[in-house]
Amino acid sequence: MGKFEVKRISNLLDFDLNRFLEQSKKEGFRIVERLVTDYKNGSNTFNLIGESLFGVFNEEGLLVAIGGLNKDPFSKEQCIGRLRRFYVIKEYRRNGIGSLLVTKLIEEAKRYYEILVLHTDTEEADKFYTSLGFLKKNLYPSSSHYMEFKS
């Protein structure tokens, strides 16, 4: 399926996200809608220390996956990061694109946090995240999975 590159996104509004919005809504997810809304209103622009937004781009430079890292807004502990607003365009799934992006987000999280959490409620996503080393247990507020980093 070609070569893909993970890049940090400095301004989400530089990208046309209509395809992401339409597809995610059809699937019953509000992930991308929340990403865009929060970014536009300034409530989450992934620009604080320990936060970042990454995209996966295909050979033509088209954005095909997106995902972010925030300090966990549901925890008072500073050592917990949260994987957020993760979405892969449907025709690019099951090709390692999601794993490529999550691996980059984990690498980034290790620089700032001791624990990385996320929330998902689908069986497919549960299998995906556990295959990457996340443990399924709601030990942390508003999360379904976590990963601890050894110091």
Task: Give an account of the 3D structure.
The chain has helices at residues 18-26, 31-41, 97-110, 123-131, and strands spanning 5-8, 52-57, 63-71, 80-88, 115-118, 135-136, 145-148. It has 151 residues and is an alpha+beta fold. It has one domain (5-148): Gcn5-related N-acetyltransferase (GNAT) (Aminopeptidase). The chain has a 7-stranded mixed β-sheet. The protein starts with a strand and ends with a strand. It comes from Bacillus yapensis. GO terms for molecular function: N-acetyltransferase activity. Keywords: Transferase.
**Which architecture name does CATH use?**
3-Layer(aba) Sandwich
- Categorize the overall geometry: globular
The biggest beta sheet is recorded as: 7 strands, mixed
Q: Calculate the terminal CA-CA distance, rounded to whole Å.
A: 37 Å
How many runs of DSSP E, i.e. beta strands? 7
Tally of separate helices: 4
Strand content: 25-35%
Helix/strand/pairing category? alpha+beta
CATH top-level class: Alpha Beta
Name the CATH superfamily assignment.
Answer: Gcn5-related N-acetyltransferase (GNAT)
- Helices and strands, in order, run as EHHEEEHEHEE
CATH topology: Aminopeptidase
| Order of strands across the main sheet | 1-2-3-4-5-7-6
Low-pLDDT ranges: none
Radius of gyration equals 15 Å
Average pLDDT, rounded to a whole number, is 92
How many separate domains make up the residues?
A: 1
Helix content range of the residues, please?
25-40%
Keywords: Transferase
Organism: Bacillus yapensis
Domain N-acetyltransferase: 7-151
Pfam families: Acetyltransf_1
